[in-house]
Design a protein that fits this description.
By secondary structure, this protein is mostly helical. It contains five helices and no strands. It has helices at residues 6-32, 41-65, 70-77, 79-87, 96-126. α1 (6-32) packs antiparallel against α2. It is elongated, with a radius of gyration of 16 Å.
C-alpha cells in the first residue's frame, strides 16, 4: 500500500466521488431514453463527457502516485475502454437511436465495469 500525503488522499476521495456522480449521471441518461419527462439529458451527457476527460487527466496523476502497484495501474489504464466507448458518440448526438445504443450498450457498461475495478483498488485509500 502506497504511503500517501493528506493532499493525495483528498484527491483520491474527490476522484471516487466523481466516479459516483458520473455513474448516477449515466443512469439518468439511460433512463431518459424511455422516460420523456427526464429533461436535459443531452446537456447532462455532454457534461459527463467532460467529466470523463477530467477523470482521464487525473488518471495520469494516479498512475504516477501508484507506480509501485501494478494491479491498480492496470485498472487505471483500462479507462481507455471507457474513452473508446465515449468516442463512439462523436457526431451521434442528433441521432437518438444511435446515442441510446452507444450509451446503453457500450459507454455505460464499460464505465460500470471499469468503475467497479477501480473502487476495489481504491477502497483501502478511500475508507479509513
Amino acid at each position: 500500500m502506497a504511503k500517501l500525503t493528506s493532499d493525495a488522499l483528498e484527491v483520491i476521495r474527490q476522484y471516487a466521488s466523481l466516479l459516483e456522480t458520473v455513474e448516477e449521471g449515466l443512469d439518468y441518461v439511460e433512463a431518459s431514453f424511455s422516460d420523456p419527462r427526464r429533461m436535459h439529458a443531452d446537456v447532462l451527457l455532454a457534461d459527463l463527457l467532460l467529466a470523463l476527460g477530467k477523470i482521464g487527466e487525473t488518471n495520469v496523476y494516479l498512475c504516477q502516485l501508484f507506480a509501485d502497484e501494478s494491479d491498480l495501474v492496470g485498472h487505471i489504464e483500462r479507462f481507455a475502454d471507457v474513452l473508446e466507448a465515449a468516442a463512439a458518440l462523436d457526431g451521434q448526438f442528433s441521432d437518438a437511436a444511435a446515442k441510446e445504443r452507444i450509451v446503453c450498450g457500450r459507454l455505460s457498461p464499460a464505465f460500470q465495469a471499469w468503475k467497479s475495478a477501480m473502487e476495489s483498488g481504491l477502497r483501502r485509500y478511500v475508507v479509513q
